[in-house]
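Usage

Read records sequentially. Each one opens with the input sequence:
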Amino acid sequence: MSGFDKVVHSYEEAMSGLTDNMTIIAGGFGLCGIPENLISEIKRKGTRGLTLISNNCGVDDFGLGLLLPDRQIKKIIASYVGENAEFERQMMSGELNVELTPQGTLAEKMRAGGAGIPAFYTATGVGTLVAEGKDERQFKGRDYILEESITADFAIVKAWKADRYGNLVFRKTARNFNPMAATAGKITVVEVEEIVEPGQLDPDEIHTSGIYVNRLIQSTFEKRIEQRTTRPSGE
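and closes with the structure output:
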């Protein structure tokens, strides 16, 4: 197989090189589109002192929440943390360093980092605690604050389909933070539901180019629902 082949055959190989005190960007939104098996491998490895960048921190027994009981996470940069009691406990007790970031700003931090842009100005957060200590400028009469972009030692990503060269297709809501996260890791590891041969994906279907992907692994997923809401019977 060509040297462009990104496929690995074990989660140990997929996350090789991850050591204590590294920074990880994780794709996903709530429990949708999360790299759940890669997270489980981090749990198994017992890697500690991690800085995590993700929209949220999973729930108590699933997703990134799995890394909280053994204190594997030192700091998290996130947008929403409301579904995790252990997260709340560690944050309120000072055991966990939390940097809350507006959701759109977090997405742009990842995108800019992947594009090699060191910082950008945004109006989001002006006049709030988010703006404290940040450079502020006016453009066309409107106030903006300077936000630094984000990159990480590892990016862990969940996609629906890929070819062996690492070209990725995301499915519906799972195309959330994953495409941006994939561009911003020094090592990007992707788990997918299906791997096809090069040439089987229509170029117009590809959401993220394989140039960003270092390792690719196929697996099955639980795809747990965070908040199940249904209509009462008979409606």
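Summary fields computed downstream for this record:
- The first strand starts at residue 23 and ends at 26.
- The mean pLDDT is 94.
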